[in-house]
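Hi all, posting the design record for the shared folder.

TITLE: backbone redesign
STEP: 1 of 1
STRUCTURE INPUT:
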C-alpha cells in the first residue's frame, strides 16, 4: 500500500499531520526524524514536521536529508521549512518576537499547485520563534503574511516537471491545525496531486485485509483478549471474531469501580455482538486491597497488580483447557497507533507521555496480536462502524483503567463508589439527552466527561429546614483530540444548572456541585 512518511522532529502537532493524511484515505507512518526507511518501495512522499527547537540550537535535530531530497516529493512544515531553507543555503533568523496565532496569506504565486483552491486571503496558523529571511537560490516564494516574508516557498528548478519525484515545498504555518482554514486542502494537494496517492486506505479495505491477515497469522489457534468496555478493545474483539469466530475468548474483569450498571450493560452489548465473553466480578478483592489507601499512585499500583492477577487466573484456565478448539497461543490487545509511536526524548522541551501497554502473562507463553496497531482513535471508530457495531459502543468516552478509583479523592469505600456512580450516572445521562443546535448530543461534543467526589472535603448546606454537612462533587468535561492537551468544555449554563439540581436532589451524601474550568496543561484530565 502506498504510504507517506512523516518525519517527526518533536512537534506537538506531528500526530495531527498523520491523522489529516489518513483522512485523505492515504496510509502514513510517523517515524523519528533520523529513521527514514530507505528503500521502501511504497513511499510516495515525505513530510517534515515542526519542532520545539530552533535550527540554531546545538541539540536541534538535523538528519542527513540526502536519501530523501530529490527522490520523493517533500513538504516541510514550520521547522521542516526552516531546516530545508538552511540546508540549501537560505537564511533563518530569530524573529523579533515569537509569532503565534492567525495570519492571512498574500500571494506571489496564486496558481501554485500546492495552493490549488485557496481563497484570496486564506487564514493560516503560525507558531514559530525563528523566521526564514532568505530562501535558497532556485527556490521561489509562493505566499507571505503581514509579518512573515516566506510563508510558503518551493523549489522551482527541481519542480520543472511535477511528475518527477523531486519536488520540494515548504510552509512556515501549520496546515494540520484546525485554525489553518484550508489546511486540509493544502495537504490534499500535496498528498493526492503532487505525491499521486490512489487514496486506497479506507475502513472497508482495512477490515478486509486485516481479517485475511489475522486468519493467516492465527491459523487454527485460539486467542484470548481482555475487554475493558472501551472502544479499542471492543473493536479489536469484533474484528478478531470476524476472523476466527468462537476461537476468540474475551475476559472482562469488574474491579468494582466501573460506572453504574456498566458491567452488566457492557456484557449484554458484547453478547449481542456474538462475542464469547467471560465476565469476572472481582470487586470484593479490589475493595479489600484498596481499603484505607489514599495515595493516587498507590491506588493505581494496587489496581494494576490485582487486575493482572485476576486476568491471568482466568487466562490460565483457558490456556490449560482441553477444548476441541485449537490451542490458545495468542493474547490480543486493543493497542492503537498513538500508543506505539516512538516518542523523541527531548529533555525538558516537549511533554509527551504514553499510556503503555500491559505485559504478557509470562509462563503462558502467549504471542501478542494487535490488530489495531496502525490505527488512530478516529479510525478505530470508523472500523467499528464498518463492522456494524452500535454507536453506543463506538462513541463511548475514554475511561481510565483504574476507573472511579482515580475520581474519588481520599480512600475508597463501596459506599463512596456508589455515591459517585449515582452522580456520574445523572451527569452522563444528561449529556446524552441534551441536544445541541445541530442536533448532536452534548455527549458526542465532548472528548471525555465524569464526576469527581471530593471525599475529604465537607461543606455546609441547607435542604428544606435542615442543615446538611456533606461532600461536594466536581463535574469535569473536556474537549481534546488525543488527551495530551485538553480544554474544559464550555457546557451551557442551563445544562449545568439542571445537572446540579438533579445531583443534589437525588444523590444522598452530595450537597454541592462545582464545575472544573481547568485546561490541560497545566491541570490533567483526571484529578488523580
Ligand atoms: P490525564 O489525567 O493524564 O489523562 O490528563 C489523560 C487520559 O488518560 C486517561 N487516564 C488513564 N488511563 N490508566 C488508564 O488506562 C490510568 O491510570 C489513567 N490515568 C488517566 C484519562 O482518563 C484520560 O483519557
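Okay, here is what came back for every position:
SEQUENCE:
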Amino acid at each position: 500500500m502506498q504510504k507517506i512518511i512523516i518525519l517527526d522532529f518533536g512537534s506537538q502537532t506531528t500526530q495531527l499531520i498523520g491523522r489529516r493524511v489518513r483522512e485523505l484515505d492515504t496510509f502514513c507512518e510517523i517515524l523519528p526524524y533520523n529513521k527514514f526507511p530507505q528503500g521502501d518501495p511504497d513511499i510516495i512522499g515525505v513530510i517534515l514536521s515542526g519542532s520545539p527547537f530552533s535550527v540554531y540550537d546545538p541539540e536541534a535535530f538535523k538528519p542527513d536529508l540526502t536519501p530523501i531530497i530529490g527522490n520523493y516529493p517533500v513538504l516541510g512544515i514550520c521547522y521542516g521549512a526552516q531546516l530545508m531553507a538552511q540546508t540549501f543555503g537560505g537564511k533563518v533568523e530569530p524573529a523579533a518576537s515569537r509569532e503565534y496565532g492567525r495570519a492571512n496569506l498574500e500571494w506571489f504565486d496564486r496558481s501554485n499547485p500546492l495552493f490549488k483552491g485557496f481563497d484570496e486571503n486564506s487564514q493560516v496558523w503560525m507558531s514559530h520563534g525563528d523566521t526564514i529571511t532568505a530562501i535558497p537560490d532556485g527556490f521561489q516564494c509562493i505566499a507571505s503574511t503581514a509579518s512573515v516574508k516566506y510563508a510558503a516557498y518551493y523549489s522551482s528548478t527541481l519542480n520543472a516537471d511535477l511528475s518527477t519525484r523531486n519536488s520540494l515545498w515548504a510552509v512556515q504555518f501549520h496546515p494540520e491545525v484546525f485554525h489553518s482554514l484550508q489546511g486540509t486542502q493544502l495537504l490534499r494537494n500535496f498528498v493526492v496531486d503532487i505525491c499521486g496517492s490512489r487514496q486506497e486506505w479506507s475502513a472497508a479495505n482495512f477490515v478486509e485485509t486485516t481479517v485475511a491477515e489475522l486468519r493467516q497469522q492465527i491459523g487454527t489457534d485460539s486467542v484470548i483478549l481482555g475487554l475493558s468496555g472501551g472502544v479499542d478493545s471492543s473493536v479489536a474483539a469484533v474484528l478478531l471474531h470476524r476472523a476466527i469466530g468462537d476461537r476468540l475468548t474475551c475476559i472482562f474483569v469488574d474491579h468494582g469501580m466501573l460506572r453504574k450498571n456498566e458491567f452488566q450493560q457492557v456484557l449484554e452489548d458484547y453478547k449481542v455482538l456474538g462475542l464469547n465473553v467471560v465476565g469476572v466480578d472481582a470487586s470484593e478483592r479490589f475493595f479489600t486491597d484498596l481499603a484505607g489507601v489514599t495515595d493516587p499512585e498507590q491506588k493505581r499500583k494496587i489496581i494494576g497488580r490485582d487486575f493482572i492477577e485476576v486476568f491471568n487466573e482466568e487466562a490460565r484456565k483457558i490456556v490449560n483447557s482441553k477444548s476441541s478448539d485449537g490451542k490458545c497461543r495468542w493474547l490480543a490487545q486493543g493497542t492503537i497507533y498513538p500508543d506505539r509511536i516512538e516518542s523523541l526524548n527531548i529533555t525538558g522541551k516537549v511533554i509527551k507521555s504514553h499510556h503503555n501497554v500491559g505485559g504478557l502473562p509470562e509462563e503462558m507463553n502467549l504471542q501478542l496480536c494487535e490488530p489495531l496497531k496502525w490505527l488512530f482513535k478516529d479510525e478505530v471508530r470508523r472500523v467499528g462502524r464498518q463492522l456494524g457495531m452500535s454507536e453506543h459502543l463506538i462513541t463511548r468516552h475514554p475511561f481510565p483503567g483504574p476507573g472511579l478509583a482515580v475520581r474519588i479523592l481520599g480512600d475508597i469505600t463501596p459506599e463512596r463508589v456508589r455515591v459517585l456512580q449515582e452522580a456520574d450516572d445523572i451527569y452522563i445521562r444528561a449529556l446524552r439527552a441534551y441536544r445541541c443546535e445541530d442536533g448532536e448530543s452534548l455527549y458526542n461534543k465532548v472528548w471525555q466527561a465524569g464526576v469527581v467526589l471530593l471525599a475529604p472535603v465537607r461543606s455546609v448546606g441547607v435542604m428544606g429546614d435542615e442543615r446538611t454537612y456533606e461532600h461536594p462533587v466536581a463535574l469535569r468535561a473536556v474537549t481534546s483530540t488525543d488527551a495530551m492537551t485538553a480544554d474544559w468544555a464550555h457546557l451551557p449554563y442551563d445544562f449545568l444548572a439542571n445537572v446540579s439540581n438533579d445531583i443534589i436532589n437525588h444523590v444522598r451524601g452530595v450537597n454541592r456541585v462545582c464545575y472544573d474550568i481547568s485546561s490541560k496543561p497545566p491541570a490533567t484530565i483526571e484529578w488523580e
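COMMENT: Residues 103 and 147 are 8 Å apart (CA to CA).
Let me know if anyone wants the other runs.
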